[in-house]
Task: structure prediction
Amino acid sequence: MSTFENHDYKWRETYIVLFHAQRRPTLEKVQQRLVDLNSRFELVNPEADEKGRFQSITIQSPQDFAAMDICYDDGSEVLEQAAELQRELKSAASADERPKIAGLANCDAKFDVLHFEQVTGEASDDEDDMLDPSALLGVLNVLADLTSGMAIDPQSGSLM
Result:
């Protein structure tokens, strides 16, 4: 079940981690790193391909009022998205970021990280919501580290 189908959560944004497909980790390795990051994470619906490589998982983090759906994708559409992001990011890149951004053109795999806020009682759009972004930032760092990839916020066009 996708978190989109769970009425206790509201989608906030989607981040991506771009990397080379040969760096795709196993489901077991991803789960272990996530548990090491935060032992209170609830890992739901873990899926792997026939070789045990990561396919998808849902993370629920009640203490952060958050959840994340993480899905693997690869192929020509990812190459196109990486090339487009490279063009967008290049103009605003610092000297330190330019070599990383240049590497985007060769990324043929990604993790989509869909970030959800847990809603309590009546859903509201108040500015003082209780969502803590630390779980998301930690998960993005773990995924980028596991794959030697780059975490990107496509909405703002920035590297994480």
